[in-house]
Amino acid sequence: MIPLSRRSALAGALATTTAVFPSLTRADTPTRGGSLHVILNPEPPSLGMALAPQVPVQLVAGKILQGLLTYDAKLNPVPALAKSWEISADGLVWTFHLQPDVTWHDGKPFSADDVVFSITKFLPELSARARGNFSVIAEASAPDPLTVVFRLKQPFPAFLYALDVIGGGIVPRHVYEGTDFRKNPANTAPIGTGPFRFVEWQRGRFIRLARYDKYWKPSKPYLDEIVFEIIPDAASRAVALETGQVQLASFNDVEFFDVARLSAVPTLELVKGGYEFFSPQMWIELNHRVGPLADKRFRQAILYALDRTFIRDKLWFGFGEVAVGPLARSTRYFDPSLRPRPFNPARAEALMEEMGLHRGTDGTRVKLRLMPLPYGEVWTRLAEYIRQSLGKVGIQVTLDATDAAGWVKRLADWEYEMTVSYGYQYADPAARLEHSYMTADIRKGVPFNNSMGYSNPEVDALFEKAQASTSDDERRQLYSKVQHILWEDVPLAWLLEMKFPTYVDRRYRNVITTGLGVVDTFDEAYLAK
Amino acid sequence: MLAAIVGIAIVNFGLVHLAPGDPVRMLAGEGGVADATAIQQARAEFGLDRPLPVQLATQIGRTLTGDLGRSFRQRRPVSDLILERLPATLLLTGASLVLAIVLGCSIGTFAALRHGGWADRLVSVVALLFYATPTFWVALLLVLVFSVWLDWLPAYGNASIQSATTAGGRMLDLLSHAVLPVFSLGLYHAAIYARLTRTAVLGVANSDFVRTATAKGLPGWRIVAAHILRNASLPVVTLIGLQAGQLVGGSVVVETIFAWPGIGRLAFEALTQRDYPVLLGVFFVTSVLVIAANVVTDIAYGLIDPRTRARPA
Fold first, then answer.
1. pLDDT value of residue A27
2. pTM of the prediction?
3. Which of A77, A83, A395, B270 has the lowest tally of Cβ within 10 angstroms?
4. Separation between Cα atoms, residue B34 and residue A170, nearest integer Å
5. What residues does each domain of chain B span?
6. What is the least distance, in Å, from the CA of B67 to any CA of chain A?
7. Residues in chain A with pLDDT < 70?
8. What CATH number has the domain spanning A281-498?
């Protein structure tokens, strides 16, 4: 038996405690009732989680739909729709036992057929992430209504991390089968198994969910309703929090420069956890096809030239960690023996001298262009800081401003020299991360793959081997080796592991309980009387 | 007029497609995970795999039959998206237009009649101040004073989420939500009307016919109302005509700050997402309204000033 099942036993124990977030867990007894108002920004295009893989959609639909599993802050799998699971010794046969007495919000019973339909038909049709993760399934079957068996083509331990509600949300087969998945009305008014059911969506204003009285966890959820309020302006969001009109803000709702002010509001608690499953990391994407960027010494020089602690403290007001290498510290298989490259402009200059890039009469060694990430003020400031820092070591940077749509296009078509980007890691390196570094993922026209053109056969081989290894120890060794190579090669200039401020009204307890944080079901959340 | 509308549709289509980036990759990009299959599927679904002239022809043909297409992002009919936001938009822009005209014209006339006095100077300074202050700043200050400090009025939204049960209660709720956004938008325009009216009234007040009217012994209010204002109103009507055309367009800034569910926000989000059908739909409705407003303005000219009527040859 591979160690994964040992973790699943542990997971069961963890599921009943919430010790991971002590500040939000208090000794009083949960009581029924109350309504939670949550900031939603921007307004989601639909509530079809597979159709529109964005945070606002997940925030709302994560209360309505459920996956087979969820994950705690240490990324241990925790039962959701699956009560327990077994993995065969060869890693090929995965058996999930489902929770009994689960019903859909329209009253129909939930069964293993819904799971097979969702994982093998619905999700791969709509979602790129699901297509990647579930293409490994050779055969899925439902021997009885409470059991699902997946037979894989090859061992794929990361399968365990593909079953969250975001990438593996289970949808009702009776609603979707035989319809055009993209046009089904359930995309805007989802029918799920979760603790809250969809009630209404007043466009431009709010989305309201109500307690589902036949939720399969007895006596849960505690809250009567959740209202997501669409507030597009950051200043108005801060006011809404301050005046108590909303009780929860997460991800990018609060501008980092408002953190000090909001943290002083006595009714609000600042929570830092709840993003472990996403573990977003930001970096400077470097197009290796452009001049000196092909040389790893130059890429290393860029990292040495940047004071990343300054970036964290002054631009992100202390939120985040200086990134070490490709894996975030909160990700599985992170190698703690690695350290971030220090801020050392002299070393940067020495590396460029070694390459023969000497300063010209105006002090410039080389000229490059940087496309700022067009996602708001802080990203513009980051680009300005990069320009300034690289300028000091003789790299003259010109900023190319564009809007979000133009940015994605230029990134996908390799029409950039340097840009800033960020990505989620989804717990297991084989789930998402490897696609930034593997040769097979150099695909023009498709954004968020290996757009920089980095190609290292050794890295490819290690990622491939680790992806299909059934031994946890072996995977750890392989990923450790990859991290060392990538740390040396610097395909991307990693900046920060990102953290976001979550504000919760102090009267609400057990709101953030897992590594999916605000995206999870809130079936434990309650209003203290 | 039909030619103008078709012309506008073609220009809009061209403009929208000139912007770099495309909706498909924008959608694919939002999740941070994308593959070639997703991009191809979406292109086919939205008809973006066909040549541009074909897309344009389809677009115009559809528009002429009154069908504005479906949003790429929300996958709902564009006419629904616009219609559901129309009442809120019209309330905001209409009320602020009325506020601007009433407040601006009366203050401007008042100032002109006291030309050179302290009241005139005060009006000029205040008008200049509101004219020069960015709308978003006025909006934020109003929120700070009336919502955060005084706690008299709601800071955002156009209705409480727990809606009132009686019609009167709902109306009161709506009004209390509308005050701040209407003033934020209206004060800026009121300043423009005040300055314009003042200048126009001053220009007319020195005319010979006003002196004649005074010499005839007409009462002051009649001179102002019938002789001065009627003649001074042409530039004001022009401005109203221009602004009325924007009624449906809404205001991106004020709608964003007050989370007001209007068309301005819809169009702005459609622009950043390259949601072509929505963008073209809003452009279309707005341009039709601009043309209509121009026609109404022309008719109004003729009513106010018979000299501007076209004479039969």
1. 53
2. 0.86
3. A83
4. 21
5. 2-64, 85-309
6. 18
7. 1-27
8. 3.10.105.10
